[in-house]
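Action item from last week, closing it out:
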Amino acid sequence: MDKIDIYEHLAKIYLDTSGKKKAKAKESRRFRNLFLLSIFVIGILTFSLITNNVHQKSPLDNEIAFIILPDVIKINYNFNSIKKEAYSVDLNSLNLSPFKALAFSVRKTDPNDVVYMRVELSNGYKEVSELYIKDIRYRWKSFKIALSDFKRVTDWSTMAKLSFIVEEWNTKNKHGVVYIDDVKFIR
């Protein structure tokens, strides 16, 4: 090998490795730029989702609920021998004075039946107040009753019992089923 061949060989080795280094550096910059761009896009999307959620509140976002029963209540009535069916919850002297409403969902099993249900609250002083729910449907329907609508209860600090009652004279059919779910007190 002569000098020219050696120089050409060394130049080829040098130029090939420097080209590879440049390609690696270029690829590394491209990856870094894509990474930074993706971080930027994710940041913008997160910011927009947060600001949209702040401005679009649902009606229940400001309400704090105290859930009374986690399970569905089933009132299975058959008025051949008795005149009413009830489901009662012992409130154990619960202080409801900070709460504003009672909320729950109700449905009946027979679409042709007409059912009115009595909702009753009583306190430790034997004050009892009731309201009737008249629009019970075949599909779930949510009700929200202001506690101030229970007029005969004056002291909400020691509540004794919450009852859901189906009476014979408030149904069209003499047998059926009413389901109650998501029972809670709302602030």
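Closing note: The radius of gyration is 35 Å.
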